[in-house]
Amino acid sequence: MLHRSISDVKGVGEKLQSQLNDLGLFTVEDLLFYFPHRYDSYEVKPLTELTHNEKATIEGEVASEPVLSFYGRKKSRLTFTLQVDHFAVKAVMFNRAFAKKQLNQGDTVTVTGKWDQQRLQITVSQFKKGESKSQEPIQPVYTLKEGVNLHTLRKVIKTALEEFGGEVPEILPEDLALAYKLPGRTQALHQMHYPETRVMLKHAKRRFIYEEFLIFQLKMQLLRKHNRESTKGHIQEYNNNELTSFVQSLPFELTSAQKRSLAEILKDMKSPHRMNRLLQGDVGSGKTAVAAIALYASITAGYQGALMVPTEILAEQHYHSLAEMFEGRANVALLTGSIKGKRRREVLEAVEQKEIDILVGTHALIQDEVVFQSLGFVIVDEQHRFGVQQRRGLRDKGLSPDVLFMTATPIPRTLAITAFGDMDVSVIDEMPAGRKPVDTYWVKGEMTNRVLSFIQKEIDQGHQAYVICPLIEESDQLDIQNAIELYNQLSAVFEPKVSVGLMHGRLPNEEKEEVMQQFSANDLNILVSTTVVEVGVNVPNATVMVIYDAQRFGLSQLHQLRGRVGRGADQSYCILLGDPQGDVGKERMRIMTETNDGFELSEQDLKLRGPGDFFGKKQSGLPDFKVGDMVHDYRALETARKDAAEMIMENTLEEDERYKTLREYVYRDKHLLGNVLD
Ligand code: ADP
Ligand code: MG
Predict the structure, then answer these.
(1) Which residue range or ranges hold the Helicase ATP-binding domain (predicted)?
(2) 11 in any annotated domain
């Protein structure tokens, strides 16, 4: 049994057991599957094959007596010449004074360290006397905590492999393993810990990556199937005539992508299973319009609807636009944290009495005091900003309402099939006709004056501009200070002819709303703001977006900000002011100037930032894969997804005897399914 305690492994006493526990290792299985996070290679290479700054291992003869010098407090440097073929390499060792005694002119040594190509120098981190043959070529490196050292851990794993390795079950059916030429599980396990060659290690990894992705995909897809089949949702019998009349009242014709998404949503609403759908589309692609139509459908079916958004400004905006759209058709109300006292009680009362059809708000919507009479449809905008608890809270409110998540961050396919594998997805991949792509420029900081005169020119033509101030991470306070400073600066430059407004998160709500209304009404020409205008805000007359210190923002965020302009018929401009130091920053600026396509951009962003960072702090809901990497091993993920879908669709997972062990594995960690569920 692999579930036995690690204390059953020979040589693991109480102390070591508790140290291993600290690493999260409790069972023999935990130990066997505690994989190295990287592998160092000590393969000796000829100098001609080394690249600059690489960690390299070379072999040669000590050609000069090592010289030891001291500097600073207790710091030392040992240098000698290493003759490698016909090259004289300078070897430097820091703080290894003891090595002087061990190394003598004429000795053959193998050293590993950082290679400096220009100076033919190696900064030695490890050395061994003698030729390299005695060394293991590939050295696994494990994540360790204080207490256990590498040597001990390797020894324990070795013992465990010898004692219990034979009990490790094969969980993949044979035909799959054969089809992909994957090594057996036990064999692969050995290679992960004691790789014989690079090639064998590669195949071992390939095996575990596939296995890991497959199990994850199976869980996600089972969950999705479960959601579809067993959750009893409402059958929303919406009124087709009323819906058509509403759609016709809109000042535009829906794009075909909007129509397609809407049809998918309506089909979910009509069916007895509960909708769990993600609607994604670039900023301005018309998601809100689709959502509004779906909300209206739910109302004609006799239900109430809710729209939950991440910020108060956005809640207010949505509230105003929905109230206008639904004028004479439905009652819309706003509920945010700052609606208090009597007004709040009135809204709550009206919601409970079903005098309100649609409630728009921030997460205030999911507080206990809000009671809907018949909540049938919930829309969550910018879903990744909502934590798990909030989502669950909303779901618990009604009698299992249909839930539609909307996001304007185009999610790279890679992430979509992973993070949202349990959801149905609709994509609006088409912009309303007549939209002109925003012209984007990257401008260095010293050009600020020219940027300001450009703003003036646009304002002279009756247009408006946003100016976004630098982002100070983790500090609201500094953000606001920045905004105020920039506001003062620009006021001094532009006023009195041009009016400048200020917007930031800490303004009292009435003020925020007033500023937004002034800007909407073109009473303000320039709006200086923190990133609070990032999502959803819609002022079609604004044609300029200037972003200070643009290098501080992520690509997706820059794209979101840019999406605030280009919403009307006029040509719009986005100006990125910034002097990025690093390559990543420069790359971001370049990508922004080259593409307006949110999906392409998000793929690039993912590559630059990695999946963990993509959705921002901890809210990602992304799984923590042990071996696989969603971006790098994307193709394996795709394959696993297809295979999982097939196993579930054809019921092989449930019924085929050859899939029994795999099935047990998938169902074993029920809590993992729970995690995914949210
Ligand atoms: P999103 O929520 O995806 O950012 P919105 O639904 O807010 O996009 O739409 C952005 C702007 O485009 C709004 O002013 C909206 O009225 C308008 N719009 C939406 N759909 C269309 C369409 N099919 N044709 C023209 N304009 C549209
Ligand atoms: Mg929107």
Answers:
(1) 268-428
(2) no
Task: Kindly state whether residue 164 falls inside one of the protein's structural domains.
Answer: no
Distance 317 CA to ligand 2 centre (A): 10
How many Cβ atoms from other residues are within 10 Å of residue 456's Cβ?
16
**Ligand of minimum distance to the alpha carbon of 309:** 2
Mean of the per-residue pLDDT values of the chain: 86
Question: Which ligand is the nearest neighbour of the Cα of 536?
Answer: 2
* CATH number, position 542: 3.40.50.300
Ligand 2 centroid–CA 221 distance in Å is 29
Q: Would you say residue 606 has pLDDT above 90?
A: no
Q: Whole-structure pTM over 0.85, yes or no?
A: no
Task: Judge whether 501 and 524 are in contact, CB under 8 Å.
Answer: yes
Domain boundary (399, 428, 457) is at: 428
Give CA angle at 197 (191, 199), nearest 5°: 90
Answer whether residue 299 is part of any domain.
yes
Which residue's CA is the nearest one to ligand 1's atom 19?
286
Query: How long, in residues, is the chain?
Result: 678
Ligand 1 in reach of 285 Cβ (< 6 A): yes
Q: How far is the CA of 632 from the centre of ligand 2 (A)?
A: 32
Residues 262 and 397 in one domain: yes
CA distance 551 to 528: 18
* Residue 49 burial class via C-beta count within 10 angstroms: exposed 0-12, middle 13-18, buried 19 and up: exposed
Q: Which residues, by Cβ under 5 Å, contact ligand 2, an ion?
A: 288, 536
Counting the structural domains of the chain, the total is 3
Nearest CA to ligand 1 atom 9: 286
Compute, in angstroms, the gap from residue 425 CA to the centroid of ligand 1. 19
Per the structure block, which two tokens stand in for 669? 């960690």
The SS3 of residue 129 is strand
> In this structure, are 401 and 530 located in the same domain?
no
pLDDT digits (tens, 9 = 90+) for 656-677: 999 999 998 888 765 545 444 4
Q: Which atom of ligand 1 is nearest to the CA of 285?
A: 3
CB atoms within 10 A of CB 94: 12
**Do 444 and 565 reside in the same domain of the chain?**
yes
User: Which residue out of 296, 538, 565 has the highest number of ligand 1 atoms within 8 Å of its CB and is therefore the one to mutate?
Assistant: 538
Do residues 444 and 508 share a domain? yes
Residue 252 in contact with ligand 1 by CB distance below 6 A: yes
Ligand 1 atom at minimal distance to the Cα of residue 250:
16
Token duo for residue 78: 């040992």
258 lines ligand 1 (CB under 6 A): yes
User: What whole-number distance in Å separates Cα of residue 350 and Cα of residue 360?
Assistant: 13
- The pLDDT-based confidence of 534 (bands split at 50, 70, 90) is low
Q: Which domain holds residue 287?
A: 240-428
pLDDT at 597 over 90: no
Q: Is residue 421 domain-shared with residue 464, that is, in the same domain?
A: no
Q: How do residues 407-431 score in pLDDT, each as one tens digit? A: 877 777 667 766 666 678 898 988 8
Listed residues 595, 622, 647: the one ending a domain = 595
pLDDT tens digits, 161-199: 999 999 999 999 998 999 999 999 999 999 999 998 888
User: CA-to-CA distance for 609 and 597, rounded, in angstroms?
Assistant: 18
Instruction: Report the separation in Å between the CA atom of 287 and the middle of ligand 2, taken as the mean of its atom positions.
Output: 6
Residues 516 and 582 in one domain: yes
